[in-house]
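Hi Prof. W.,

I finally got the Citrulline utilization hydrolase CtlX prediction working! I wasn't sure whether to trim anything, so I left the full sequence exactly as given:
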Amino acid sequence: MSTFRSIQAPSAVVMVRPHRFTPNPQTAADNAFQSEADQNDAHTIAAAAYREVSQAAEQLQAAGVRVHLFEDEGGRDTPDAVFPNNWFSTHPGGHVAIYSMYSTSRRRERRQDVIEMLKAEYRVQDVIDYSGLEQDELFLEGTGAMVFDHMARVAYTARSKRADPVLLERFSAHFNYEPIVFDTADGAGRPIYHTNVLMCVATEFALLGVRSLTDPCRSQAVVARLQESGHEVIDLSPEQIGEFAGNAIELAGRDGRVLALSQRACDSLTAQQKARIGRSARLLPLRVPTIEMAGGSVRCMIGGIHLSPRRAQA
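And this is what came out:
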């Protein structure tokens, strides 16, 4: 397994620990991965989600990943705050983006204290804020809507209500990414709400639900682009996508790269797929079944920090 560090795999992340977690009814309409919660069991659900994020953060830190853990006590006012990757992203060279959110309830997740921490701990050159475009109904939900190949400067994007093409073009011009857009469908024929549910780009490989792309020619073009940039494409079945196998993120740990994903996702992978991933990164499964009720998994829980630290980390 390679221990080479790349700009694709951040060594520090932002996570948000919820105190009153609940699946968000506002996002259920176009998120087929979401499940309904028993409101009579709200306290048990919230307590389980709190433990899952706490334990996930501990496991990441034990692997050598620096975790900036923020508390969310907003409860029902910010039911999806555990997924910070949708409202901000960071990029090599000191660039930060703040995004516009499709659901009105999700707009309250944006936190100035997270941005101030990034400025204090890392070298930030500029912050571009797209949130004002919500008034024009232009939405682009961060690294949920876009899966970045930071090395090849590509933004892979599944067409959806949460990835407006006008705003995607504007972002791509500002941040110097090539947008590659495609249509998707889940097993029931519905568009997949976020790109990072069906795709993960790591340093040497990419997980992709090839059959979830509806246009075979476009699917072949996406695979070819990934291979052109040096990635081995690992095809995920629609069933594995449904188990959140695509919702993973490669991180730089103390002893090399790790692929953080949920235990459910890891269990869905075949032995051959695990072996192919293991040649480049160690699998790091995290148990987050309660969080997954909200329709997202480990990738959604992690805001990667692709910025240079102001001081050397111990």
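The chain has a mean pLDDT of 92. Does that look reasonable to you?

Thanks,
D.
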